[in-house]
Amino acid sequence: MLLEVHDLHVEFGTRDGVAHAVNGVSYRVDAGETLAVLGESGSGKSVTAQAVMGILDTPPGRITGGRVLFQGRDLLRLKEEERRRVRGAEMAMIFQDSLSALNPVLTVGDQLGEMFTVHRGMSRRDARLRAVELMDRVRIPAAAQRVGDYPHQFSGGMRQRIMIAMALALEPALVIADEPTTALDVTVQAQVMDLLAELQREYRMGLVLITHDLGVVADVADRIAVMYAGRIVETAPVHDLYKAPAHPYTRGLLDSIPRLDLKGRELYAIQGMPPSLTRVPPGCAFHPRCPLARDVCRTDVPPLQAVQGPGAEEGERASACHFWRECLHG
Amino acid sequence: MAEPILEVSGLVKHYPLTRGVLFKKQVGSVRAVDGVDFVLAAGETLGIVGESGCGKSTVARMLCHLERPTAGAIRFKGQDITQLSGKALKAVRRNIQMVFQDPYTSLNPRMTVGDIVQEPFEIHPEAAPKSDRRRRVQELLEVVGLNPEHVNRYPHQFSGGQRQRIGIARGLALRPEVIVADEPVSALDVSVQAQVVNLMERLQDEFGLSYVFIAHDLSIVRHISDRVAVMYLGRIVETGSDAGIYDHPTHPYTQALLSAVPVPDPAAREHRERIILTGDVPSPADIPSGCRFRTRCWKAQERCTREVPLLAVPERFRDAAGPVAHDSACHFAEERRVLPPDEPPGPHGLVTA
Amino acid sequence: MPEQPQQPEGAIAGTGAGGAMDLAASEATALERGPGGYGGRGGQDKPRSLWSDAWRDLRRSPVFLASSVVILFLVVISVWPSLITSGNPLQCDLAKAQDGSQPGHPFGFDGQGCDVYTRTVYGARASVTVGVCATLGVALLGSVLGGLAGFFGGAWDGFLSRMTDIFFAIPVVLGGLVLLSVVTSNTVWPVIGFMVLLGWPQIARIARGSVITARQNDYVQAARSLGASPARILLRHIAPNAVAPVIVVATIALGTYIALEATLSYLGVGLKPPSVSWGIDISAASPYVRNAPHALLWPSGALAITVLAFIMLGDAVRDALDPKLR
Predict the structure, then answer these.
(1) Complex ipTM > 0.95
(2) Which residues span the membrane (chain A) (predicted)?
């Protein structure tokens, strides 16, 4: 087990009161595995990742409970200095907006090299060489000439490659990628996603891919955790989830994808809108939008329970729906 | 084809690149839109797809007269609107309205929803008598699925999807005939996108609207469009019916674009053909000679650097029947299916709501 | 380092309440999505706007409350100084020169034998008048010129930008010494005029920037595509969204204008006796600072507190109007 997040709770203080951004999230990632965390804005998917990385802004954020076990150590109990050593060297993060995640006044060579001088104590000259190597590795053309360029001199796709190079510099065991391709164009998106998957296989990293894009997930993930209003509502191996979702929210998302045989007809649309995190509905947070909702859904929070069904042999499927059977068998 | 309501021909927009503070000198130009032609029929939806920087938003802005074209004509019901000004322009504007991408910046945060939707009537007082306006606003809100009692709320009290509905209500107020929607759903949550797409389709039927629907999400464009135009570096490279473009693409860029789109079906992962383009889109300030796609094209030959390919039905398909015979600006156009055939309706279909 | 969290770009007060968007985490967006609750159309909240939000923040800010109390007090005594003193600032008794405090004269007497308490109270009027009028003038002129430049752009914008550069290059005190030394009038108006002349470029720059930012918003494009006139766009859509930064800078500048008035008066080119001003008193008291420090201390203290109060007020207003700056 590489990473195990157990019952994580994160709150934010806002003008409107306390926002429960993460309400008891648990997931695990093995070495070499890709876990996709799928959710809309406000589902808590990025906040969870920031808590795992230890880069949550506190305040306004506050981790109020849970454990983050990384290779057996509880990261939440580490001192900030120990935490910093883990960050970058053993776990790294790739952000959506590469332009603001890279320092605009340092050359990319300096920023890549810094990883080696700070964490590995290399000389500047050696670090520079490693930087060029890395840029080659992520297939930046003419790396040796471009190592002295500044971030703004690269295109969006190239910058995202540099972000990936920086994340992989110290060959971390775990990489968290927060919407790594959302800001990129479709054709560039495919290049970057391919590169990331290839490097992950090569280094046998665990990858947590945070996204809202059902297409990207289907392309690269091994397992999926679907988040809604700060909770995981369903987790399953990728093939099984697309074949037979066991939560009405997942099913709604899949059904709302435009498909050829539905052209000219209304798209299926989930009613209403995602809840405000300062007032998450009681009971199942999805009940106001759920076609299966009954009285019990308005009062009892459904636990994430094991699902028997297609692809559930290894006990890898779970759903937080009182009526998952109904949903699964449609 | 039905009566054309909008005819665009030779549309060009160049932005000068200047140097110097006091004495400005033109050192080049950004060719954002570089010769675009299309026709929009009444009641039809034309989808325009392309990557960022391809000029699709500039086209939208020119259609709505937010930007003056460098050259070319935009004919609304036969009348060229590019040179209009004053009263004549204002009258035409009623008929072509825009829906914007970002529901957070497209509504004035200092105005109530009622004031925002009512503003079109204040600018065009002839559209509705003063006494009638409040009622019209409430009607419009109801049409787009909002609570008409919320007229006194401010935009930030609404979610992204609701704000987009407010934007649509404002666009509808003057009963336009053409709506130009620039990425109307891409800023919305996935679960809300379908609601807005459905709303737009319903309004089209109800009011007989014609849409120019610009987006980078190819599956949504396919769902809503009758015809599709693919843009690359300021030009349309391929255009045809939705079946022609998606099932029988003949331009290599379209093929690469379609093959790069992630398909929400993990089963397609293994047996999918993907065309991964090399390199980045060239700068619109420095457009390659000949075919503008040749720098990234795997088929490019010497001819492509010399000759600009025209947007027309390629010779080899001229006699072909069916959707493969559509305009494609490539010297070496050939059909290549890149999308997996759509699987029959899956086990889903929880359409009880 | 890759672990740097993303910074929201281009934080500008003008975009206002929609700015709740970039809370700590990019996806905390939904946290402040406002009411509507989970039921969709519910929510009983009163309408909120930037101003009502700002007002709510201000009421809770101790800095704002403290500085407003001070400022309110200053305004009251500059209008009705007789409320707290029965003396006459110009009635002096040389026999009492430099005397310390005594009953009825708590601050003692200055070098001319005038009552320091009375003069300090009456001095507020000059400071507040100059500060308020100069700020109003600067804000009005600056935001009109800067706003038009930002809105119309082109040659006028280029000309105005060069003009602001030129005015920025004039050292304020030197400019004051040169320009005001030729003035013989003994009122506050030449001083105010001088401040407006030199102060407007600062506001013009801010106004130009925030108008340009507001102009790029899609709601301005929406209004244009509806056929709205430039006047309507400017007054209805741009001005209300661009005014916040101007207010903030103007409030902070008010404090510095008061200090500048004192400086100019101290140098003898601002107000001149028999006007009553803290600057004049500080100037008059400085030669005797060893014998009668109280004559220097009280007007300087009043000046420092006044300037501080306005700057703190500006700070609090800025925080309230632009939550992203925190």
Answers:
(1) no
(2) none
